[in-house]
Design goal:
Blueprint (H helix, E strand, L loop, with lengths): L9 E8 L11 H16 L8 E4 L7 H9 L5 E3 L7 H14 L5 E8 L1 H4 L1 H4 L17 H15 L3 H15 L13 H6 L2 E3 L2 E2 L9 E9 H4 L7 E10 L15 H12 L8 E4 L5 H9 L8 H4 L18 H4 L7 H13 L12 E8 L4 E8 L5
Parallel strand pairs: 2-3, 2-4, 9-10
Antiparallel strand pairs: 1-7, 1-8, 4-7, 5-6, 8-11, 10-11
Protein name: Thiolase
InterPro entries: Thiolase (IPR002155), Thiolase-like (IPR016039), Thiolase_C_2 (IPR055140)
């Protein structure tokens, strides 16, 4: 019989970003990981010598945990370099939860870093040859997400304006975040009239290309109570892999979030309606629409209407991507860890002008490759235990 991790038995006690945006020349992804780790440890009052669990992934370093351990000068008892794209870090969180419960480590650090803006996206994440797709010269990943958007529009009548609502709402949240890359207002017309990248997605439907990274520190709930911080408890998580290539996705409008979401909600004993804050991986404007449907916030096909009318913007019914998301805050290639950092900060009440009042429950959902991996994590304050 498999003993699954218990709801609320571990907590996040430290959270930090590395430098973001465009970092100095010759900075490496491991530099940014190390910077974020030190900041996250300082955030919770722990030391590098306390760390005995290390979780890391990046597209620019083949053996990320090994490189980071050497850089930090530590020899972790437990380590994990699972790399399934931008959702890797939700997966790391689930694995750290299990490892801490099993006594394999006591202080786990999850880290990411990327210099994709400095070195160019192509150099940071070179494409593998795919004999079924490469001959058609797709612009990846945008063309893959454009296929999903086109199919959703065809089946459900989703409009370009509804996709644009996602980008406009993200920008409004970003304008409340001093660390966000984008500093200017955005309108639906701005999105629609922007340069086309892969029909129907313009450049404003696509995520930013930035440098950056982050880190989280995870400990047992018992140890968290001994630290001078406000712990954020891990209540649930779920993981799903459905394909690698977009040409092998069974249904372009249904993602693995339909698998990972129920796992996470079931473990947490919660529903979408209970979430005070929702962070969804927004590499493209179609992805939050798909995830809102697959996670159960609305029915399949209703995502376009659901995000319309300012519902997901500041002051709307759903606090979605409150940091500005990958569309307007920061997107250093693999965004999932930064989404979890925002969820943690919202539950700790640290978000200033964008703070969601009395937030007790938050969901952070990660997406990897071309809608290929989906991982969901649910967090809560002590009041939610």
């Amino acid at each position: 019989m498999i003993n699954k991790p218990k709801r609320g038995s571990v907590a996040i006690v430290g959270a930090a970003e590395s430098d973001l945006g465009r970092v100095p020349d010759h900075t490496t992804p491991v530099d940014l990981m190390g910077q974020a780790v030190i900041r996250a440890l300082n955030d919770c009052g722990l030391k590098l010598s306390d760390v005995d669990g290390l979780f890391a992934a990046t597209s620019q370093v083949r053996m990320a945990p090994m490189a980071l351990a050497e850089y930090l000068g530590i020899k972790p008892k437990y380590f994990d370099g699972t790399n399934i794209g931008g959702s890797s870090f939700m997966s790391h969180l689930a694995h750290a939860h299990a490892a801490i419960e099993a006594g394999l480590c006591s202080v786990a650090v999850i880290a990411y870093g990327s210099t994709q803006r400095s070195v160019s996206r192509a150099a940071a994440a070179p494409r593998e040859y795919n004999p079924w797709e490469t001959p058609y010269r797709p612009i990846l990943p945008p063309s893959a997400y454009a296929l999903a958007a086109s199919r959703h529009m065809h089946l459900y009548g989703t409009t370009r304006e509804q996709l644009a609502e996602v980008a406009v709402a993200a920008r409004k949240w970003a304008l409340l975040n001093p660390k966000a890359w984008e500093k200017e207002p955005l309108t639906i017309e701005d999105v629609l009239s922007a340069r086309m990248v892969s029909d129907p997605l313009t450049v404003r439907d696509c995520c930013l290309v930035t440098d950056g990274g982050g880190a989280l520190v995870v400990v047992s709930a018992e140890r968290a109570r001994d630290l001078d911080v406000k712990p954020v408890y891990v209540l649930g998580h779920g993981e799903a892999l459905t394909h690698q290539s977009i040409s092998c996705m069974e249904d372009l409008t249904v993602t693995g979030a339909a698998i990972s979401g129920p796992q996470a909600f079931g473990m947490a004993g919660a529903t979408p309606a209970d979430m005070d804050v929702t962070i969804l991986y927004d590499a493209f404007t179609i992805t939050p629409i798909l995830f809102l449907e697959d996670l159960g916030y609305c029915r399949k096909g209703e995502g376009g209407a659901f995000v319309s009318g300012g519902r997901i913007a500041p002051g709307g019914e759903l606090a979605l991507n409150t940091n500005g998301g990958g569309l307007s805050y920061c997107h250093p290639g693999m965004y999932g860890l930064l989404g979890m950092i925002e969820a943690v900060r919202q539950l700790r009440g640290e978000c200033g002008d964008r703070q969601v009042p009395n937030a007790k429950l938050a969901l952070a959902h990660g997406n990897g490759a071309v809608l290929s991996s989906q991982c969901t994590a649910i967090f809560g304050t002590a009041d939610a235990l």
